[in-house]
Amino acid sequence: MQTTGNLGLKKPEGTDIVDIADLNRNMDILDNAVTGKVDKVTGKQLSTNDYTAAEKTKLAGVATGATNYTHPATHPPAIIAQDASNRFVTDAEKTAWNAKAGTAVATTSTNGLMSAVDKTLLNNNTGFGTTAGTATAYTLTLSPAPTALIAGLKFSFKTHIASGANPTLNPNTLGAKAIKKPNGNAATLALNGVYTVVYDGTAFILQGEGGDYGTATAADVLAGKTIGTEGGLATGTIPLKNTANGVTGGSAGILDYHDAASASIGPAAHNDSTSALFMQILPTGVNRLAVDRGVFFRVKESNLVPANYLKGKPMFGVDGAIVQQPSAVAALSSGWDGNQLYIRIPQGAYLQNTVIGSPEITVSPALARADSNIQPGNIRSGVWIYGVLGTLQPSTTSAVNLIMKGGEGDGTFPILTIPAGATYASMCGSLQFYTGSQSNNANKVSVFLQNAAGVRVSLYSAQGGSNLTEHQGFYFDRIQRKIVTRVSNGGTGNPYGTGSHGGWRNSYAMDGQLEMPDGGVLPAGFDANGVLTMYAIISGAYGGGYASAYANGYMIYY
């Protein structure tokens, strides 16, 4: 079933069943729609806009022929009413008005109005007046009168009194400002002087000033010469002498001179902080000191000090400080840096020769022993070196043979001894240590090196379990404080000292023993001098071989 788009009338399709109710509904909708419509009259049509009764009444009031009125294109000026706010302008008046300057301030390239600042500066460019007030606080009434202190304001004035220190000027009660020279120093004004100043925004700067004059006075200037001062030119008063010792200056090629009257070395004589030669000349009058004690010329030489020349050879009355040593002098001290022996001698000059033709330094045996290696144990027995008798014995050998098994019981057993005179020692042979398995792990083997004071260093320690360790001999160096070995059953072929503890296996800080450091270097708390003995402690063997130690070989000492 379809419906129409405007009124929604139903439109049955071919498959729909026609219902009389639908037809009646469509008729009712059409009838209602027609009721609100007007009839169409020939020659008339409906307006596209709404047309009300009020509009029809208004249209009826329009006069007949009203549509024929034509508005004129122009009107005479007389019909226009003018007042104070509305006037006609002629072409001439308009041209004159357009030619006038705008409200913009004039520049150097464009006409315009003058600013208030420029007007003030222009009015007072020729301002002048005479001061009043005090020598340090001038007041001034200018004509024309400025209205404000503006940077660039320029005027002139005449002083009624000479200025004091740091004078100020207050023109037309606009504020007191300092009067300064161009270099920034306070100005000095003379009585009845006429000055021109420019205000820089902070102070009034004098124009035409060249700067300070300095502190020189007539007494500092040669007679006949002048110098500028704050008070004007001043003529010098120092007389210039032109003769001395019969020699007259002024002639071509001849100069005035004065012979030195005396000479001395500072600093004490002349309150001088440097060491210098002072020469006194005859008074010349060129320097004001000439009238009392003469003039000294200082010839400065930093090397002219007592420390640079011999004692007993005074220069200009001052003795030298360098002591001349005799032909043979004893050394003061000595030192050894591992490569060279240093001998320290007394300071001074060595100018006197012995019978061999040169100075000599004598060195005592104690000073000659600056190298700490000059010890009895490092010198062959019976040999004296610098007062030290050697105790080092020639190379010797001894057999090492120790077998300790569990069946032989517990105890502490010496394995080998390194004599006190041996600097180096080497064992050629084998050291074996064993612990077997026990249920209580009480069996233990501990091997250590003990010095003459009873201090022990751990070399090997094992307890319980099944442990077998073999060391292939060892090498000892008393100078380097080192004892190293190699474990054959824990890395065959490794060089001596490989691994931690210098090759010694299972070195522990226990039972009062020191632990062997890396590299096999003996601990700092272990004195390597004197007799050294290697011990083995066996405990928990139980007579059944659960702990044992074995040593076999030869010891070589040298």
From TrEMBL:
It comes from the Bacteria. This is Uncharacterized protein. It comes from Paenibacillus etheri.
